[in-house]
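Hi there,

I know you've been waiting on this one. I reran it after we fixed the sequence typo, so this is the corrected version. Both the input and the resulting structure follow.
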Amino acid sequence: MNKSIDFFNFKNYLSKTLECDPDKIEITRISGGFSNLTFLVQTSIGKFAMRRAPFGDKISKAHDMVRESQVLTALRKAGYEKAPKPIALYQEDGEESTPLFVMEYIDGLILRNKSIPEATLNEDEFRKLSENTLDSLIELHLLELESSGLINLGKPDGYVKRQVIGWTERYFRSKTNELPEMERVAVWLKVNMPQKENVGFIHNDYKYDNLVLDREIKTEIKAVLDWEMATVGDPLMDLGTSLAYWAQADDPDILKMFNLTHLPGNMTRSEVISYYDYRTPFDLSNILFYYVFGLFKVGVIAQQIYKRFSQGFTTDPRFANLIHVVDAAGNQAEISILNEKI
């Protein structure tokens, strides 16, 4: 494991916090994600999950473990049951130290882009999982904000504008290749921002591989993971990101690498929009903007990770092709704008 992670001090801290034997704490990397690093922490009193930011240039604030701890604590207070229980937040003294966040470990299945046999779903199961996935997202978007204190985790006024400007700035800070379609989409987003904004609690990275499914009833969602970008803002921006990840059968193959929604049985994006529209009070007449924003955001996320790869901060071979994801996301967004179709 990378020497900059001081597991010796961390184990001593955790043993005191959990009242367990430090010599029996084992930490192993859990593979899967493209961004923050996740570890399995096995102790004499049970299993836990631990997260930390990736190595390399901190291009965005999407790796904030302190914030993820605060979000999970607030969600538990609000009665949201699909968020893991926060356990501990460890950070050594010094500005350069990286926080390590420990949370409840929830056993279950996670659908990656290349699913394992035990996680294979048939068409009926994928249909039901589609519905349960959207129901869980809608539940989050409709959470009560004021008395729960969730409202304190974000600044909803002007959220859409800040997001468009912020993700555009992140793109140019992490830019490595000339991809004019991404720059044209950025301009379109600035010109076409909706005037009306909605307010709700949002996840900001909601897709299948951030869901933990029950091993026996694979359509049931046990937990939602990766909360570090959650905030209070416009739920339709969250829906737009989920739609961008919601690849369907006729999409470019490279955009299918993040989600298994392209397999038979899953809803199409049009069906997702109709399902969400029927069950929420939000006006989806301008859904094209939110979908295009989602694609642009996915492209920027891929660009940020690719830059870390190009700088040599990671040698994961998966990251070498992410520049093609940026290109494909930009193209898909531009085609959707021209055709006025999602």
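Quick highlight: Residues 287-310 form the longest helix (24 residues).

Best,
R. S.
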